[in-house]
Amino acid sequence: MTITLSFITSLIFLRVILDHSLSEIKDRVDVTVYFQTNAPEDKIISLKSALEKLPEVASIEYVSADQALQEFRKRHEGDYLTLQALEELDFNPLGGFINIKTRETSQYESVAKILEGKTALSSDSVEIVDNIDYNRNKSIIDKLTNIIDEANRFGTVMTIVLILVSFVITFNTIRLAIYITRDEIGVMRIVGASNWYIRWPFIIEGMIYGALSAFITLILFYPITLWLKDGITVFLGLDLLEYYLGNFWEITGIVLVLGVGLGALSSFLAVRKYLYK
């Protein structure tokens, strides 16, 4: 039972690691809208406000033309020729831009279509948008969307399969334990004991095994997460120990319910063979 519950608990942590990794990748993807250098800032702010009202949009970051120029200077602070050429100009050659992040990667296309509409790209018949980089990043966004969908499907299928395998292992283990007491069950049936009278002690015993196994599993995972903490934090930026302690009661509830449930159900099914001979 402890091995079975440890296996299921490992699935919880693997799912957390997978979700965190996908979230990190999603955070690096966005759609950038570059504005004309002569675009009025109030029109840009108006467009930004309109986009923020879209249900697909998670966040929008606006960088003004002046901020864009400062960032450009900072990125090229060691490039003397570029900075010198910039000084020769008596105007800011860069326009402002906004970075748009959607709630799901699959929603970037719909936002891009809205941006490509005439009403979004212009104001008072004046074009304010210079370029949208969605088409350039479309193949990357589509691939990432497919990876996320496949990973979620794979994680769901593997969770179901492994829980079923764990149940079969637990069922057969308890069935083997009940096999030892088959003669006692036979005697109780002969003297007229009801099926539930015979079944309840085994179900309660299975529940106790499940509860004890759940607590053993929870104790074991503290040193395991402590040992994995540094490695996973370095590679993924996820503190597994902090997640375990922060969600301890939630994980405890899941493991305890699964342990008691598996023990009770396995005992219920395993004893049937000896009740209906």
Q: Main traits of this protein?
A:
277 residues; alpha+beta; Alpha-Beta Plaits; 4-stranded antiparallel beta sheet; two-stranded antiparallel sheet; 12 helices; 6 strands; 73% helix; 9% strand; elongated
Describe the 3D structure.
The protein has 277 residues and is α+β, with helices and mostly antiparallel strands. The chain has 2 domains: 2-21 and 158-275, no CATH class; 23-142, Alpha-Beta Plaits. It has 12 helices and 6 strands. It has helices at 2-27, 41-52, 65-75, 80-88, 108-116, 118-121, 134-179, 182-190, 195-236, 240-246, 248-270, 272-275, and strands at residues 31-35, 57-63, 97-102, 122-123, 126-127, 129-132. The strands form 2 sheets. The protein has a 4-stranded antiparallel sheet with strand order 2-3-1-6. A two-stranded antiparallel sheet has the order 4-5. The longest helix is centred in the middle third of the chain and has 46 residues, at 134-179. The radius of gyration is 30 Å and the shape is elongated. The model has no long low-confidence stretch (mean pLDDT 79).
